[in-house]
Amino acid sequence: MKKEKNEKVLNRFQYSTEEVIEKPFNWKQMLRLFSYMKPYRKDLLPLSIIMVLINTGVRLVIPILIGVYTLDKALIEKDGQLLAFLVAWIAGLYTISYLANYFRIKWMNMLGQSVIYDIRKHLFTHVQTLSHRFFDQRSAGSILVRIMNDINSLQELFTNGVINLLMDLIMLAGIFIILFTLSPELTLAIMVILPIMFFISTSLRRNIRRSWQTVRLKQSKLNSHLNESIQGIRITQSFTQEKENMAFFDGVNTENFESWRTASQKNAMFRPLVELTNALGTGVLIWYGSHLIQTDAITIGVFVSFAFYLGMFWEPISRLGMVYNQLLMGMASSERIFEFLDEKPIVSEKTNAIDLHEIKGHIEFEDVVFSYNEKRTALNGVCLEMKAGQTVALVGHTGSGKTTIANLISRFYDPTGGAVKIDGHNLRDVSLSSLRHQISVVLQDTFIFSGTIFDNIRFGRPDATDDEVIEAAKAVGANGFIEKLPNGYKTEVEERGNILSVGERQLLSFARALLADPRILILDEATASIDTETEMKIQVALKTLLKGRTAIIIAHRLSTIRESDQIFVLDHGNILEQGNHDQLMDMKGEYYHLVKAQFNMLEAI
Ligand SMILES: Nc1ncnc2c1ncn2[C@@H]1O[C@H](COP(=O)(O)OP(=O)(O)OP(=O)(O)O)[C@@H](O)[C@H]1O
């Protein structure tokens, strides 16, 4: 029984994680990704490449100077002057290599960070233009993951990968050419370690990286659970679900721990294996190299140069393996990023869209049909007219289409059939910003942004002065509670405005809307019950807010409905009745029954 209960609880927590971390190489996608480097092709990119070339060239030359020239020539021939000259050159070259490396890292990091900054900005700007339908189909978390994690995983590729690839290829080619020139036999002999090195730097490393990826997935699951638990703590406590919650947490925490243990065990194998391979290479060099010295096939200087180059082998091979892995990961991440970037807003502006100047606020729905998806129609040929300056109430059962009508007026969606017109302009022909600039939407659940009360009210009109903000707050009766807050208008409120009550948040959103001074106001009245005093304040505030503009209210309060100029009664996406309160009551139809059932206050009317 207990187990069954737990299983039910576990079903509650379903976190989707985007697990595809690698994709096959795709040239077209790669070129598109690298096109983000274009703005830097005249400064950071060439500068970094020059530093790479200098650094690689210098590092390739130094072992020859040490082995072949210093040992074989200056020391064996006891040429003091040549020795001093070579030592000075080697010291100078090391300094150049150090400086070139310093600037390479500095400019490459700058290039990588700038590209990441640009991609993130591009993606965020684009996501902001997307239609509501895009957000209907995705959770905020999955969008966040793309803007943060997927772009982060490209960071290494751009910061180190791309340019290091060039450096490593030149370095490896350079080492081989020099080694072959010095001694082809010894070169072939020490090549035995190459396949092992490639194996370690690609397969083994990928295996380790996948294990770390699993750790990250487990961590994000843990994060999601923690987030949900803290957000929903009040509900958890009131339903006494702490034990079940803890059991689930324990499971995710253990998974996280186990995945970490596997990854760190694999990781621990890496370094010793690399060192073992290096030791194998050194063994071959000593064994076969000393044989070649004895047979006079090579000099001691060549032997020493070989030892230096052998030490330089690992770094480029290891990094090539890493870049390869980064490229595969970059493919998966960039595919997800491009999927968002290629998403077109469903509600788009025509190229010759009209800018609506000061509108009057006359709204018409002409035979409007709309569905969110193929399965169900939300509006079935709705015809309605709202005259400029009128207050219109939309009433009806839940799911009858009230919010949909409001959404179409703001043009968050386009109708599937028919037309929505404002002042005679079909909304399909007007520019979105000029339309939305003149409409304010006040939602039931007022969104409070983190910032001060000032910032929150000013959201609708960022250029408003402090005095204008205070005036708007006074007009809707919000000034009283704001002044009682610890820092008045400068009080910091959190993301969801937890320190404010439902009624206070409503008043704040009224002040925000009043300050924006829209021609059309869409208001989804809060359903939450609030105390009579606040209720009265809200009613008074509403009167101020509605004055002089067209207002569409998704009404839940009888007092609001009664004072409306017109009421539309909706049912399953159709307008059943329309008129003012008295007319509709006289009809004794759907409205009459709705009022009777919902408000149970007929006697009072
Ligand atoms: N984003 C959406 N995607 C798919 N279907 C939706 C979406 N929003 C609403 N619907 C569906 O469209 C129909 C009308 O919904 P709408 O939100 O307009 O109703 P409503 O009258 O405002 O209801 P409520 O009073 O509960 O807010 C409902 O069947 C609803 O399930």
UniProtKB/TrEMBL annotation:
Residues 47-329 form the ABC transmembrane type-1 domain. GO terms for cellular component: plasma membrane. Its main location: membrane. It is a multi-pass membrane protein. The keyword Zinc does not apply. It comes from Cytobacillus oceanisediminis. Signal peptide: none annotated. This is Putative ABC transport system ATP-binding protein/ATP-binding cassette subfamily B protein. The chain crosses the membrane at residues 44-70, 82-103, 157-180, 186-204, 297-314.
